[in-house]
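Progress note, project year one: complex with FE2/S2 (inorganic) cluster.
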Amino acid sequence: MTDNKATKFTDTGSRMAPDTFYIKVTATGPYLVYGAPPIDEEIIVPNEDGNSWSYRKGIRISQPTGEPCCALCRCGESQQKPFCDGAHNTADWDPLETASFDPILKDSKWYEGPEVVLSDNEKLCAYARFCDACGRVWTIVGKATTEEEKNIFYHETGFCPGGRLIGWDRKTGQAYEPKFDPSIGLIEDPLIKVSGPIWVKGGIRIESADGRSYEIRNRVTLCRCGQSHNKPFCDGTHAGTHWRDGLPV
Ligand code: FES
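Model obtained:
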């Protein structure tokens, strides 16, 4: 993409949730959740080709009252998942945050089609595979011109839970973002028999252990298996390690 085009594609469509909602990453322990957003299992559902297509809600996780309302495990070893039980003190994990504080678009690659544009920040891949639902999104971007093709393109980008992929209208420069209330999902991926990350939706601020905030984004996935190399964000490692949280699916 040329520089003058790139200046048109700058507003990612993410808006910050009310500031009562935020998640604090602790240095060596759990995520502390403020503002009592609803927490639900979000179970990936396939299409008729067996590819990730939508989510259905599983159990609602009831939260204790008070602030923070709960502490969610991020080492992956708690026996009371999704909550912390102190297992991080003896778990084999590295709690260090290594993710960038830069805006997502700084490290994104761009793919330009006749009608739509794709930005792709590979470091934020949560391996949910909606990008393959009806053909690979990197192929679709180059040929989507009909409403049906564009809808599939925006479906594949918008369902990407970690927000790695953003779909843009080429003519207006507008990003397509699904509307989310501030809320938290625990991703379950029965297609490959693993549990996935914490899906943070609706612009909830994520504050690092050192007090800095990451970019406000409408879709973010936080690692809860403890093994990501891009903490606090999920990098898909849970799929390779076949991590499970033990919750009913
Ligand atoms: S939950 Fe995805 S890498 Fe940890």
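The chain has four helices and 13 strands.
The longest strand covers residues 52-60.
No further modelling is planned for this target in the current period.
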